[in-house]
């Protein structure tokens, strides 16, 4: 049996298109709706950085549509999957 631990975070954004889902981890990519009400915007680096850090710790990160929005899942499988690893992300 393989151990695993993970965390899921969801929102109610209405979901993403298939094209957006394939580009979410591309460095520098920002969707048209990636704007804050005050006009500030990001650089499109947040999710690529998350993916790199999670991979360095032998984990995975995925984004999928789940009505009414999206779900981001960070997970680690294997012998080193324990609650201490999960606490690092909370």
Q: Structural class, from secondary structure content?
A: alpha+beta
* Alpha carbon gyration radius: 15 Å
Estimate what percentage of residues fall within beta strands: 25-35%
Flag low-confidence runs: none
The major pleated sheet works out as: 3 strands, antiparallel
Q: What is the number of helices?
A: 3
Walk me through this protein's architecture.
It is a single chain. This protein has about 90 residues and is of the alpha+beta class. The protein contains three helices and three strands. The chain has helices spanning about 20-25, 45-55, 85; strands spanning about 5-10, 60-65, 70-75. It has a three-stranded antiparallel beta sheet. It starts with a strand and ends with a helix. About 5% of the residues are buried.
Q: How is the secondary structure organized here?
A:
Blueprint lengths: L3 E7 L7 H6 L22 H11 L3 E7 L2 E9 L5 H5 L3
Antiparallel strand pairs: 1-3, 2-3
Give a short synopsis of this structure.
The protein is of the alpha+beta class and 90 residues long. It is built from 3 helices and 3 strands, in the order E-H-H-E-E-H. Strands 1-3-2 form a 3-stranded antiparallel sheet.
């Amino acid at each position: 049996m393989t151990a695993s631990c993970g965390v899921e975070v969801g929102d109610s954004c209405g979901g993403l298109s298939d094209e957006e889902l394939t580009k979410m981890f591309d460095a520098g990519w920002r969707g048209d709706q990636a704007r804050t009400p005050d006009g500030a915007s990001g650089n499109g680096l947040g999710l690529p950085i998350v993916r790199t850090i999670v991979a360095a710790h032998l984990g995975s990160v995925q984004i999928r549509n789940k009505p009414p929005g999206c779900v981001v899942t960070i997970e680690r499988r294997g012998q080193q999957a324990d609650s201490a690893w999960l606490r690092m992300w909370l």
